[in-house]
Amino acid sequence: MIELKSSREIDTMREAGRMVSIVLQEIEERIAPGVTTQELNERAEKTIYALGGEPAFKGYRGYPASICASVNEEVVHGIPGRRVLEEGDIVGIDVGVRFHGYYGDSAVTFPVGQINEETGHLLEVTHQALFAGIEKAVAGNRIGDISSAVQRVAESNGYSVVRDFVGHGIGSEMHQDPQVPNFGEPRQGILLKKGMVLAIEPMVNVGTYEVEILPDGWTVITKDRKRSCHFEHTVSIDEKEPEILTAWHLKKNLLR
Ligand code: MF3
Ligand code: CO
Questions:
Q1: Among 94, 108, 128, 180, fewest CB within 10 Å belongs to which?
Q2: In CATH, what number does 7-244 get?
Q3: For residue 76, which atom of ligand 1 is closest to its CA?
Q4: Do 222 and 211 touch, CB atoms closer than 8 A?
């Protein structure tokens, strides 16, 4: 069943989303060579509570942290720890906040120091793929319009899209129907209606789309150990234009 949100519920989700974007902006300023992912997690958790929210990921199916931090060949769900970020790495930071019973969910892949040109291209294309998907998130379109738009941007640039993990509906739970795959056919799938809210989250790989899960039970890595990139926004569907509830304003405008 797909939950349709009232405009008051969207107001609450906008607040949750604003908290998520504040946390991501704060993390951007702290990412540098020498920083551990655990430090980023501690900071994020403090900020979420200070803003009046709760970290949505913490305790979710036993997940032990407040953010996910996925480095290089890690796709999503990396657990923050003692790993030290190094110049040239990329780190996908995923943040979820619960506020007054509603959720916001967003992710950014950040460069650590200077990254090489190929990796910069991966980040740009994945960001572009996210926005190509968001553009299709309007009433009257179908899920497949979002999915195929994301896939087209990624694959036309020579990359692959992960199959085993997908975006999702979001609202009074973090994960709701419908699923939002990053691959599919235009005009297929459920019809989008005003009041639906979707987490659109392309996971784009340099090499194969196949992934594995590390023995920690969470961290998803690419099978070929090539790099992967993840961006995510929580987006509400309206008749005319999608509204990005987690809109972040990043300092480094490497994302054209
Ligand atoms: N944004 C991720 C998702 O939609 C976050 C899940 S991490 C978890 O699946 F720990 F909470 F599972
Ligand atoms: Co999500």
A1: 128
A2: 3.90.230.10
A3: 2
A4: yes
